[in-house]
Every structure is written in structure tokens, then in C-alpha cells.
From TrEMBL:
It comes from Paenibacillus glacialis. This is Thioredoxin. Pfam families: Thioredoxin_9.
């Protein structure tokens, strides 16, 4: 049975309302949003070509305290704005029921970008971070299954540092996010 989120459509806030209402990381988020440029014309053309699609909606689970939201969602917002896809943000703390349908490695991780049809049926999702960055967390979880282990926190700090480094200067990550979103949408 496919997941249906029809009851969540039209309950979120707009991307602009999310940005305006941020209590944490607002300046960094806005800076990342303002710094966005289309590095590859074909990517902009692809997302622009989606303006005729009236069968897709997007719900984004997000929290302003999350570094992955601050790094990734400005790119996602620009892609979806260019595509003309109606987009709503669901605040994590108000939508644990949705979050629990989209766990990452068994845990709650945001952002999650959820593509649904007009009836609310889930078509696909992306997140919480680009695959090349997420790979560090996958390896960490495989190598550190015991959260109670004495070195768990130390190892988590190391992997978080590696993930931040993998995010790099932004251009490569921006391209990775756009590529992954394009692949997902192309399959819808």
C-alpha cells in the first residue's frame, strides 16, 4: 500500500514563510539561498520545463536548527521555484507522524523532500543529504551499531566533521542535489 499524505496537503507553510519564521540559522540559510546560481544551463532548462506539470506537489520536512536543512534546502527551493511545483514546508516538531514514515537508517533526519501526486500519494522522496555526503553516515552506522558504546560520541563527531568536509564549498553539492532531484523527478 502506497503512503498517502493527502491530509497534510495545504497544512504546511510556504518556503518564504519558512525562511521568514526561522529562529535559528536564518542568516546562513538566507546567504545560501541568495548565493544560488544555476551552474549548468541544462539543469535550469530541465526544472523550467516542469512548469507544465500540474500533477506534482512537494512537502518538505524541515527544522531550522538542522545544518543539512541550511545547506540543502536553499538549492531545493530554487529548483522547485523554477519548476513551478507547489511546495509546502512541514515543520518537523509538528509532523512527527510524517517523519516516522520517512526514517533514514532507522532515525529521524531532515530535510526530507517528498513528492506527491494531487491526491497525496507519495511518488518519491529525497534527503536528508546528497548521496556522497550520506555515504559517511551509512558507513558510520554500519561500523557503530551500539549507541551506548564508549566511543560512539567521539566517532559521531568525526563523521560529522567528514560530512561537513564532503559538503565542500557548495558548488559541487549544489550540482549533486540538482542531479539527484532531476533523476528522481524524471522517474515520476
Amino acid at each position: 500500500m502506497r503512503t498517502n499524505l493527502a491530509d497534510k496537503l495545504r497544512t504546511g507553510i510556504s518556503p518564504q514563510q519558512f525562511m521568514d519564521g526561522m529562529q535559528k540559522n536564518k542568516e546562513t540559510f538566507q546567504s545560501n539561498y541568495d548565493a544560488f546560481v544555476w551552474d549548468v544551463a541544462s539543469e535550469r532548462e530541465f526544472f523550467g520545463s516542469l512548469n507544465h506539470r500540474d500533477d506534482i506537489r512537494v512537502l518538505i520536512l524541515a527544522a531550522d536548527w538542522c545544518g543539512d536543512v541550511v545547506r540543502n534546502i536553499p538549492v531545493v527551493f530554487h529548483a522547485l521555484e523554477t519548476a513551478g511545483i507547489p511546495t509546502e514546508v512541514l515543520i518537523l516538531e509538528e509532523n512527527f507522524d510524517v517523519m516516522d514514515e520517512f526514517l533514514t537508517l532507522g532515525g529521524r533526519s531532515v530535510p526530507v523532500v517528498i513528492f506527491v501526486d494531487t491526491g497525496g500519494y507519495v511518488l518519491g522522496s529525497w534527503g536528508p543529504r546528497p548521496k556522497h555526503v550520506q555515504q559517511y553516515m551509512i558507513s558510520f552506522k554500519q561500523e557503530n551499531p551500539d549507541r551506548e558504546a564508549s566511543d560512539y560520541a567521539e566517532n559521531m563527531a568525526i563523521v560529522r566533521s567528514q560530512m561537513i568536509e564532503a559538503y565542500g564549498e557548495g558548488v559541487d553539492v549544489r550540482a549533486a542535489i540538482l542531479k539527484e532531484l532531476r533523476e528522481l523527478i524524471s522517474g515520476i
